[in-house]
UniProtKB/TrEMBL annotation:
One of its GO terms (molecular function) is aldehyde dehydrogenase (NAD+) activity. InterPro entries: Epimerase_deHydtase, NAD(P)-bd_dom_sf, NAD(P)-dependent_oxidoreduct. This is NAD-dependent epimerase/dehydratase family protein. Pfam families: Epimerase. GO terms for cellular component: cytoplasm. Residues 5-217 form the NAD-dependent epimerase/dehydratase domain.
Amino acid sequence: MAMHVFLAGGTGAVGRLLLPLLLDAGHRVTAASRTPRGIAWLRAQGAEAVRLDMFDRAGVLDAVAAAAPQVIVHQLTALADANLADNARIRREGTRNLVDAAHRAGVERIVAQSISWAYEPGEGPATEETALDTDAPEPRATSVDGVLALERAVAELPEHVILRYGMFHGPGTWYEPDGPVAGRLRRGELAADGSVTSFLHVADAARAALAALDWPSGVVNVVDDEPAAAHDWMPVLARALGVPAPAPSQGRPGWARGADDTRARTAYGWQPREGSWRDCFERLAADRPTVPVTAHAGAAR
């Protein structure tokens, strides 16, 4: 059924891939951006666009009321500069403003972006029933507290789907050749230890958000099916970038355990189309011109 969707974060890494999917599916979309350039891009794609700062509470309340959507899709992040404090703030304040706007406008359904690496320490990939890491020390506590605030606010609406995404790779992410992870790897700043990550291609994240318009309320891990330790994935990325890989090591923080995607696959019939992190990193290698590299002495996390 076609719906009117209010898309917050329409020009972000996921939002810019999600917008054409929504439009192609027949949905009417009102999307928000902070900048004139973003507004122009949204309109060029076929969306109705509103210029909006998500920290402007009155502006958010007015914008959602004026749009009168049937569902809000929350893909807001502040990760372009890899600033976790800014991202936690948008999860707290931006989400609060969106949810309050939904209450005021009578919007009962929301689909929201969360993360799958905020779970408490343990062995094996975490399921949706695993508790979040509420005892985490700083700096991790900042991120976990932001996730808690987001998920609690979103759950106030009678229909809510919380997508606990894996670590994004693909266009516009930290794992692109010019991204911050690639930069740290080039500088020898990362350790290839036993820390486990569940990844997700941003295009698959967008497809999940589209599908979630019809999913029942609740939390769902949306990840690829290959949780990987850093000493497994980091050499593949290093080879793709043409830089030396850190020496492999063991040990991991207890929370670095990956996430289980059984619910998404079995209950909702969702699965990634872009392949695993391995497929993505190997595509980077195939696209990279051959250049000589030199070894570095070692790495520190």
